[in-house]
Amino acid sequence: MYKVILYLSVVILISFIIWVGVESLPVKVSLAIIGLTFLPKIRKKLYKPLLVIRKGKVAFYASLLFTFLLLIFDIKTVITGSSTDFIFSIFVFSSCLLGNIIYGIPVSLLADLVTTNVRKYRVYLSF
């Protein structure tokens, strides 16, 4: 009973923060769905260790690739003499990685759970 009260209070607090702090309705809905993935029964179905590790590696490599491409497109300023700011590239990498981990992994796992039994229209349902 104690765990139920604890989880209920956390869910109420998170939902209050989401509904009061964010103005856009689609962002509210997506954050609420992501917040539901942390409930114990849903978490056991979604967060399997091998799958989370695989998706975490993909999130890391996607963030690394985006940062590398950003530096490649900025190569013109490196050649002309003005150097790129290394702190800015670290900021871009960390923000990409944080977004991929907080938003990308739960949404990807949720899409995998929803579309596990669907064979024909799996690609369309994933979007």
Shape: globular
What structural category do the secondary elements indicate? Answer: mainly alpha
| Main pleated-sheet profile | none
**Number of beta-strand segments:** 0
Q: Which stretches are low in confidence, meaning pLDDT under 50 for 5 or more residues running?
A: none
Number of helices: 7
Averaging pLDDT over every residue, what do you get?
Answer: 76
The level of helicity is over 70%
Task: Kindly provide the radius of gyration, computed on alpha-carbon positions and rounded to a whole number of angstroms.
Answer: 19 Å
Structural commentary:
- With 127 residues, the protein is mainly α.
- Helix content is 82%, strand content 0%.
- It contains 7 helices and no strands.
- The two termini are 38 Å apart.
Q: Secondary-structure blueprint of this entry?
A:
Layout: H1 2-21, H2 25-36, H3 40-46, H4 49-73, H5 75-80, H6 86-114, H7 122-126
Feature tags:
single chain; mainly alpha; 7 helices
What is this structure, in a nutshell?
The chain is an all-alpha fold and 127 residues long. It is 82% helix and 0% strand.
